[in-house]
Design goal:
single chain; about 350 residues; alpha/beta; Dehydroquinate synthase-like, alpha domain; about 45% helix; binds zinc ion
């Protein structure tokens, strides 16, 4: 499956399939990037996967030499310190202005390698090769960045990749929890704009991990939703906010858990609470709110906030919303397949959070 994102810096392809890593030389040639040095940036866990070995093998003889740089896995390493090490590695490897970076890994590698690409010598081309299910989302849209000690993603840029290559064969080595975390974003994309995909996710048996080709269609449809949204609003001036559905409450719960909850797990809880906010104000039917919760549950995701301290959670929402007093801007589901941007009063969040927590939804 081949999609295309329109961006101010030009359009870029998003290629999805089982085994598409073997098409990488061809894609680099199409982009006229096959006569450059190639720096593959990854983390130490992905480095050891059979997928990565296959990718390197496919790249033998392509370009003017291959350089592999890796860093320890985990969000804690998505930092300026790691970026600095990567810059040094690139300089030492003789990497120059026109050369190309391949970001091979989950969202951490994508954000960090993309940030390095955006800033090294004022910008070099890069290609995203996402290897987690969650990264079907993060690899598209050109948001790159690193964390600071004070908070996540505080430094970054909009810097679109030259291509995104999502090979579902990479997913076979994910563990069940990484899988669930990614499914939350797949379900989110269905809620935003693809009711047929949602119906599939809520009723049909899911393809097994061992058979990644069965997942191509689902991944491609979720990615199409993101492609369409970021094509229409690259810089998050309006429409792109719909992608935040589930994320306002989700981020607060994720932070409150001290990141014990995975991102997708927190987004799942956020989606259910935000669906309840929408249902309470008559924007969404309770039947659809129930469908959202059931679909998430079906994929093994949590649907109730485990924390009773709603005030602490509200405070985190408030910080996130930068203390706006005439109501917080939320992306709320209005139907399966439609999200609206609305202002929500803190009290509405409190009521919905408590309803969901107590199981009245
Ligand atoms: P991750 O990159 O840390 O990957 C999770 C774990 O899986 C890591 O330990 C990694 O080494 C391992 N892994 C990766 N691929 C694997 C594979 N094929 N087999 C086995 N293990 C594998 O995290 P993630 O969940 O992919 O992404 C989270 C990050 O994405 C966060 O930093 C978040 O801020 C960022 N993000 C960015 C955007 C964006 O628009 N840029 C959107 C959402 C999330
Ligand atoms: Zn997310």
């Amino acid at each position: 499956v081949r999609l295309e994102v329109q961006s101010a810096q030009g359009a870029y392809p998003v290629v999805v399939g089982a085994g598409v890593r073997y098409a990488l030389p061809e894609i680099l040639a199409d982009l006229r990037l096959d006569d450059r040095r190639i720096a593959v940036i990854t983390d130490e866990i992905v480095r050891e996967t059979p997928f990565f070995a296959g990718l390197l093998a496919a790249l033998q003889g392509v370009g003017r030499g291959l350089l592999t740089l890796q860093f320890p896995a985990g969000d804690a390493h998505k930092s300026l310190a790691t970026a600095a090490e990567l810059y040094h590695g690139l300089v030492r490897g003789g990497f120059r202005r026109g050369d190309v970076i391949l970001a091979v890994g989950g969202g951490v590698v994508g954000d960090l390698a993309g940030f390095v690409a955006a800033t090294y010598m004022r910008g070099v081309p890069y290609v995203q090769v996402p290897t987690t299910l969650l990264a079907h989302d993060s690899a598209i849209g050109g948001k790159v960045g690193v964390n600071l000690e004070e908070g996540k993603n505080l430094v970054g840029a909009f810097y679109p990749p030259r291509a995104v290559l999502f090979d579902t064969e990479a997913l076979t080595t994910l563990d069940a929890r990484q899988w669930r975390n990614g499914m939350a974003e797949v379900i989110k994309h269905a809620i935003i704009a693809d009711p047929d995909l949602f119906l599939r996710l809520e009723t049909q048996p899911m393809p097994q991990l061992a058979d990644p080709s069965g997942f191509v269609d689902i991944a491609a449809r979720a990615m199409r939703v993101k492609v369409d949204v970021v094509t229409q609003d690259e810089r998050e001036s309006g429409l792109r906010q719909v992608l935040n559905v589930g994320h306002t409450v989700g981020h607060a719960v994720e932070q409150f858990s001290g990141y014990a909850l995975g991102h997708g797990e927190a987004v799942s809880i956020g989606l259910v609470v935000e669906a309840a906010i929408a249902a309470n104000r008559g924007l969404l039917s309770w039947a659809d709110a129930q469908r959202i919760a059931s679909a998430l549950e079906r994929h093994g995701l949590p649907t109730r906030p485990p924390y009773a301290d709603v005030d602490a959670v509200l405070k985190l929402v408030e910080v996130d919303k930068k203390h706006t007093h005439d109501g917080w801007v939320f992306a709320l589901p209005a139907a399966i397949g439609r999200v609206e941007i609305v202002r929500v009063k803190p009290d509405e969040v409190r009521v919905a959070y408590e309803q969901v927590r107590e199981g009245h939804r």
